[in-house]
Specification:
Blueprint (H helix, E strand, L loop, with lengths): L6 H29 L8 H43 L2 E2 L13 E6 L5 E7 L6 E5 L10 H9 L3 E5 L4 E2 L13 H13 L6 E6 L1 H12 L5 E5 L15 H21 L6 H4 L8 E6 L2 E2 L4 E2 H13 L3 E6 L7 H4 L1 H15 L5
Parallel strand pairs: 1-6, 4-5, 4-7, 7-8, 8-9, 9-12
Antiparallel strand pairs: 2-3, 3-5, 10-11
Helix pairs in contact: 2-6, 4-5
Length: about 350
């Protein structure tokens, strides 16, 4: 979709055309009134009312114009977001030289028959973890996680999500369709005789997919979700300021656009999280405040999702982290918590 690069220019042209049209109408209206002047009030009170009404009309027109343009920009930007986020992000994937272990190149089918490409490492301790990368990336985004887990005896299956990396797909779906891929991954592990003890870990949209998939598929025994955010607009917290009102409205429109494009409407995370119980969950979030929103990822999602999920969910907010950068901020602690979580889930003794 190379034509998307011209979207901002087209957006500016349309806005300028709208403003030019409005200014032309204003000029013509002013010209008409100058040629056909209306009688002005002669009393002091009448003149005051006339001026006040005139100012109110100008103010109302200005506010209406501003809101109209804001609505136009929000809607067309949502359309641009949908087109951009649904576009495939193919990339060539190679094994990092410093990976530290041998992987098997594998291919498996999603439940809707897409061929997904990945790497597989058999387990040494009887448990395998499915690893899900962030939106628009590929399996190499979960290399650090794989290193920690393989070094601790876990098997891993890390793959490129649909329409990403080297996997098939003519569109991405913001995670809406991706549980079909996780189901295919579990079926692949079953064929390899490794489906008895399966966990899942994801970052960003990968975390959303991990939680979504665990709620739908009881074969997933434990979930590590770093940077989980939203599947649907209902997953956003209640708006507390005008900016969040706009963001929430924008997300509802995006939901509608996705549902039209994909012919589906997944259940929001806030309604799915309880379905994972009693299986254990760790929800990881960044504690650094977003300067625009005035709150951190942990405040927005992590603590709230843990409360909704129930006592089987543990929140971990890393104060100096932003989004999925916990392994950079606290590599030793993160690795220890990650391994200990799955050890406990699968009753692995060391």
């Amino acid at each position: 979709m190379t034509w998307l690069r011209y979207w901002p220019a087209a957006e500016l042209i349309v806005i300028m055309a709208i403003l030019s049209f409005i200014l032309m109408r204003i000029w013509r209206s002013a010209k008409y009134r100058s040629q056909h002047p209306a009688p002005h009030p002669t009393t002091f009170g009448g003149r005051v009312r006339f001026i006040l009404l005139y100012l109110l009309r100008i103010l109302g027109f200005g506010l209406g114009l501003l809101l109209g343009l804001a609505l136009f920009v929000m809607l067309e930007r949502d359309i641009l977001t949908m087109l951009t986020e649904m576009a495939p992000t193919p990339s060539e994937v190679s094994v990092p030289a410093d990976l530290g272990f041998t992987v098997e190149d594998v291919r498996f089918k999603s439940t809707d028959s897409l061929t997904l490409s990945g790497w597989y490492v058999p387990a040494q301790n009887g448990a395998t973890i499915i690893l899900l990368h962030g939106y628009g990336g590929n399996r190499t985004g979960m290399t650090w996680f794989a290193q920690q887990l393989v070094d601790s005896g876990y098997g891993v299956l890390m793959y490129d999500e649909r329409a990403s990396g080297e996997s098939q797909g003519d569109h991405r779906s913001y995670g809406w369709e991706d549980p079909r891929d996780v189901d295919g991954a579990i079926r692949f592990l079953s064929e390899r005789g490794a489906a008895d003890n399966v966990g899942i870990a994801g970052c960003s949209t990968g975390a959303d997919i991990a939680l979504h998939s665990a709620a739908l598929n009881p074969a997933l025994d434990a979930v590590w979700a770093d940077g989980a955010s939203t599947i649907r607009a209902q997953d956003l917290p209640a708006p507390r300021d005008p900016l969040m009102v706009v963001i929430t409205l924008s997300n509802y429109f995006l939901d509608w656009a996705y549902s039209v494009r994909l012919s589906m409407q997944p259940v929001p995370l806030v309604e799915l999280l309880k379905e994972i119980a009693p299986r254990p969950i760790v929800l990881v979030g960044g504690g650094m405040k977003n300067p625009l929103l005035g709150a951190s990822e942990g405040d927005f999602y992590t603590y709230r999702y843990a409360q909704i999920a129930g006592p089987n969910a543990e929140p971990w907010v890393i104060p100096e982290a932003t989004h999925c950068d916990g392994p950079l901020q606290r590599p030793e602690e993160y690795s220890m918590r990650l391994v200990q979580f799955f050890d406990k889930a699968f009753d692995i003794k060391r």
